[in-house]
Amino acid sequence: MPSSSMLHVRMDEATKARGTAVLDAIGLSASDAVRLLYHRLIADQAFPLELKVPNAETRAAMAEAEAIIAEGRARFADGESLIAHLDAAIGK
Q1: Local confidence band at 2 (pLDDT 50, 70, 90 cut-offs)
Q2: What residues have CB less than 8 Å from 7, skipping those under 6 apart?
Q3: Which of 10, 14, 28, 74 would be a feasible disulfide site paired with 32, CB 3.0-4.6 Å?
């Protein structure tokens, strides 16, 4: 495993608090966001990001996916298994 190093960033408290709230809504920590930024800087050789807070429809889909995982509902190894399951559910 590669060694890691610290990156210290100074900013005013209000900016930090507001930014942290947005990152929480997106599902990222401040460290995750900085790591993502650096990886994209390297890959794109440009300042890359346009992340937004998910809208209500996306948040509902994310919550549904988390519920499916938590409840252990059907998951499929491939598309054919999914189609077979759906066909069986509607009686085909």
Answers
A1: confident
A2: 34
A3: 28
53 in Cβ contact with 25 (< 8 Å): yes
Nearest alpha-carbon partner for 32 in 7, 12, 69, 59: 7
Residue 35's CB is within 10 A of a number of other CB atoms, namely 13
Q: Are residues 33 and 64 in the same domain?
A: no
**Domains of the chain: total:** 2
Tell me whether residue 78 is exposed, middle or buried, using C-beta atoms within 10 angstroms of its C-beta: 0 to 12, 13 to 18, 19 or more: exposed
Q: What is the pLDDT of residues 47-62, one digit of tens each?
A: 886 778 889 999 999 9
Per-residue CA distances from 62 to 18, 36, 69, 82, 92 (Å): 23, 20, 11, 20, 30
For 64, the domain range is 56-89
For the record, the structure tokens of 44 come out as 């794109």
Q: What is the CATH number of the domain that holds 7?
A: 1.10.1220.10
